[in-house]
Amino acid sequence: MLVTLRSGAAAVDILAQVDTGASNCLFRREHGEVLKLQIEDGDPRTFSTAIGPVETFGHLVSIKVLDIEFESIVYFFADERINKNLLGRVGGLDRVRFGLVDHDQELYLAPYDFEPS
Questions:
Q1: Residue 82 needs a FRET pair 20 to 30 A away by CA distance; which of 25, 34, 58, 98 works?
Q2: Strand pairing class (52-65; 43-49)
Q3: Rounded distance between C-alpha atoms, residue 76 and residue 25, angstroms
Q4: If one looks up domain 2-111 in CATH, what number appears?
Q5: pTM over cut 0.90
């Protein structure tokens, strides 16, 4: 899914995977650097994964998915070798109404406060 991350005047368009198993939104370090963030100045957090602990740093950014934009604390990997962008539950999927029809390969996304007429 195409996602735009923004911090101040800097922005970066990236491809991210929707990951309902990821507790938070996690992005490649280089994307935070494009946003001119001092990665290690962020809130340090270690995530437990199947391959072991992963060090990250949290920063407040604006996330835009389709036409939905919101602010969120997201985490950038400390290790530049990690090549993943994950739109997780906290700070991502909890800000939208998300529906997936796997058989039809359809994705439905709306702002969380959207009320159909």
A1: 98
A2: antiparallel
A3: 9
A4: 2.40.70.10
A5: no
